[in-house]
Write a structure and sequence with these properties.
heterodimer, A: alpha+beta, 9 strands, about 40% strand, B: alpha/beta, Rossmann fold, 3 domains, six-stranded parallel sheet, about 35% helix, about 15% strand
Chain lengths: ~160, ~575
């Protein structure tokens, strides 16, 4: 099963390599990973999406907690949470299909961030299903490039 | 007052109570070694950095204090790696200090530069690259704190040359406060009560006690607990000495080369009380077939050790000494009906002991290695410290030496490091000057750190090296004999040196024993000599270690050696 794990860590050099090294060294999977500062500049948040059975996920969280630079580990899958990712996607555009591409983008509430005579670049945010659906719909037009952030997530307050 | 980083480091070590360290100097450490000179901290120059790490490890394991080793940047630091990994696998409190090129040169492939933090990341409990002289005092303090608390382990501190040369005030904080590091020491009271409920229900309980008993100095609590409940105790390799070998409840070691009674007791049990142990694969054999009818209680300070390899029914996270003391406090007198049930189980265990005791051919004209170890066990005082190398020498020691006190066996269990025993014995001898310290070695292992004869000669350190010479890498040869059609590929040490002459060349006393009748006199001469000794005993070349659980088999599926191979396996009596 897939789990989204939120890890707050000391905002220091070398910390990410400890976290990532733990995953590779112990044979855990990383499906996606994103890192950024929190409100407190001395703390970063690493959001990791990982796959494994209950025993593996238990080990993942326990091993993460053992790292001295790790402050808190929360398996968000156990609680109510919101997650989002962002993609920048460059799509081939011709006179014939331009309108169609723009219509799809509008439905997905994407932003146009760059235009050229032969392409559009959109910025789309959403949960995984939305992003996957968008990619699926624009693929037939020809995708030149995708840059994808990986998930960020927070627990819901209520 | 402004001090140099080197002076701050020396002061920090003193404030941690460090009296002795093991190391090897080099270019980037010149400032430190200058500050160390006549500082009051004793520095033992080993002849290889790996030996410095193992010596610090042996010092730590035998004394319970933090061991300190040091090496210069680049090759010095990489030579420490095996020693650090050894300490990591066996949870030994160690602080490894490494020199580093100046901060502005890091990453530029400078002379003798290695990313030692990166290299040792998976084999340290934590590590620090010090980038500012003013951080040094705090970091050293944190390093010692992390190494020695919770589940102990090695911490590496990397020291760039300019940080040691730079100046700052000595500002050691009053206490350590690391927000991501708060090890849980006290066991949960509800869980502790559940342990008692489990014991109350069990008819065939067994205690499986590991190195945690020794690390936590919990031998007395364990003994009280086992005696009160009349539960037999088996030890892991690292747990040996944590429960007296001559105690009627003791089963000996379990696992791949464990005793028949220990493996049968575990296999047939309905409750395993795992205390400070981690269900290593050498213990469990095939996990799927391990103790099929047992409920498992696991007491350990490391939450990640719980349910890692084996499903645990009742976990208790905490320091085993405190948890055992609490269990002992809560225990009431046993009802007579339970005493009867336990007696039945103990009778069964005794039957297994009688069926298949540890054995070897005592009538052989050749010197059997087991015989040498039995005799040493008999002749050495109870507080003698035994270190081992890795392989047959290690397993025979675990089987045939009677460890009666904690911290008397030092052995590389997790990593299985050949070359560990001799330098570890040096460290143990420095920590315990009045005691007999013997490294039980094989002819293969001893050659991995034999250069340390120079170190023991220099200090007239009375470490004894007992080489069981079978001219083979015996354990690998044994596997080739059993599973690879006796093709002894690269395991024959045909051109071994004359170990007596080697010892003498270093100025160390050498003794050779070639006949069975001379074993006792050789051992006594070794024990009584006031100084280092190498005792070489020419043993039966093709003796094996039995019983043995082949890799992947259930722990009850033991083989008992070539002569007994055809015998039918004895079925357990339910």
């Amino acid at each position: 099963m897939r789990h989204t794990i939120s890890v707050t860590v000391e905002n220091r050099s070398g910390v990410l390599s400890r976290v990532v090294g733990l995953f590779s060294g112990r044979g855990f999977n990383i499906d996606s990973l994103s890192v950024g500062e929190t409100v407190d500049a001395t703390i970063s948040r690493i959001t990791i999406v990982t796959t494994g059975d209950d025993r593996i996920i238990e080990q993942v969280t326990k091993q993460l907690r053992k790292l001295v630079d790790v402050i808190k580990v929360t398996d968000l899958t156990d609680v109510n949470f919101v997650d989002r990712e962002l993609i920048l996607i460059k799509i081939n555009a011709t006179e014939k299909n331009k309108a169609e591409i723009l219509r799809i983008n509008e439905i997905f509430r994407g932003k146009i961030v760059d235009v050229s005579p032969t392409s559009y670049t959109f910025e789309v945010t959403g949960d995984e299903n939305k992003i996957e659906a968008f990619i699926k719909l624009v693929k037939p037009f020809g995708v030149k490039e995708i840059a994808r952030t990986g998930k960020v997530a927070v627990s819901r307050e209520m | 007052m402004q001090m140099t980083g080197a002076q701050i480091l020396v002061q920090s070590l003193k404030d941690e109570g460090v009296e002795i360290m093991f190391g090897y100097p080099g270019g980037v450490l010149l400032d430190f070694y200058d500050a160390l000179f006549k500082s009051g901290i004793r520095h033992i120059l080993t002849r290889h950095e790996q030996a410095a790490a193992h010596a610090a490890d042996g010092y730590a394991r035998s004394s319970g204090r933090v061991g300190v080793c040091m090496a210069t940047s680049g090759p010095g630091a990489t030579n420490l790696v095996t020693g650090v990994a050894t300490a990591y696998m066996d949870s030994v409190p160690l602080v490894a200090l490494t020199g580093q090129v100046p901060t502005h040169m890091i990453g530029g492939d400078a002379f003798q530069e290695a990313d030692i933090i990166g290299i040792t990341r998976p084999i340290t409990k934590h590590s620090y690259l010090v980038t500012r002289t003013e951080d040094l005092a705090r970091i050293v303090q944190e390093a010692f704190h992390i190494a020695s608390t919770g589940r102990p382990g090695p911490v590496l501190v990397d020291l760039p040359k300019d940080v040691l040369a730079g100046k700052a005030k000595y500002n050691r904080p009053k206490s350590v406060n690391i927000r991501g590091y708060k090890p849980k020491v006290e066991g949960h009271s509800g869980q502790i009560k559940r342990v008692l409920t489990e014991i109350g229900k069990a008819k065939r309980a067994v205690i499986y006690a590991g190195g945690g008993i020794i690390l936590s100095d919990a031998s007395a609590e364990l003994r009280k607990f086992a005696e009160h409940n009349q539960i037999p105790v088996t030890n892991t390799l690292l747990g040996l000495g944590g429960f007296p070998a001559d105690h009627p409840l003791h089963l000996g070691m379990l696992g791949m080369h464990g005793t028949y009674r220990a493996n049968m007791t575990i296999h047939e049990s309905d409750l395993i009380l795992a205390i400070g142990a981690r269900f290593d694969d050498r213990v469990t054999g095939n996990v799927a077939k391990f103790a099929p009818n047992a409920r498992v209680v696991h007491i350990d300070i490391d939450p990640s050790a719980i349910s890692k390899n084996i499903v645990v029914h009742v976990p208790v996270v905490g320091d085993v000494k405190g948890v055992l003391a609490e269990l002992n406090r809560l225990q009431k007198k046993e009802e007579p009906v339970w005493a009867e049930i336990r007696q039945k189980w103990l009778d069964q265990v005794r039957q297994w002991s009688e069926e298949r005791p540890l054995a070897y051919d005592k009538d052989s004209a050749q010197i059997k290695p087991q015989y040498v170890i039995e005799r040493l066990s008999e002749l050495a005082p109870d507080d003698a410290i035994i270190t081992t190398e890795v392989g047959q020498n290690q397993m025979w020691t675990a089987q045939f030496y009677q460890f009666k006190k904690p911290r008397t066996l030092l052995s590389s269990g997790g990593l299985g490091t050949m070359g560990y025993g001799f330098p570890a014995a040096m460290g143990a001898q420095f920590a315990n000057p009045g005691r007999l310290v013997v490294d039980i070695a094989g002819d293969g292992s001893i050659q991995m750190n034999i250069q340390e004869l120079a170190t023991v000669a220099q200090h007239n350190l009375p470490v004894k090296v007992l080489i069981l010479n079978n001219c083979f890498l015996g354990m690998v040869r044994q596997w080739q004999e059993l599973f690879y059609d006796q093709k002894y590929s690269s395991t024959c040490l045909a051109s071994n040196p004359d170990f007596v002459k080697i010892a003498e060349a270093y100025g160390v006393k050498g003794i050779k024993v070639e006949n069975k009748k001379d074993v006792d006199s050789g051992l006594l001469e070794m024990i009584r000599h006031d100084g280092p000794v190498v005792l070489e005993v020419l043993v039966d070349r093709e003796e094996g270690v039995y019983p043995m659980v082949p890799a992947g088999a259930a722990s009850s599926d033991m083989i008992f050696g070539p002569k007994r191979k055809e015998e039918k396996k004895l079925k357990a009596v339910k």
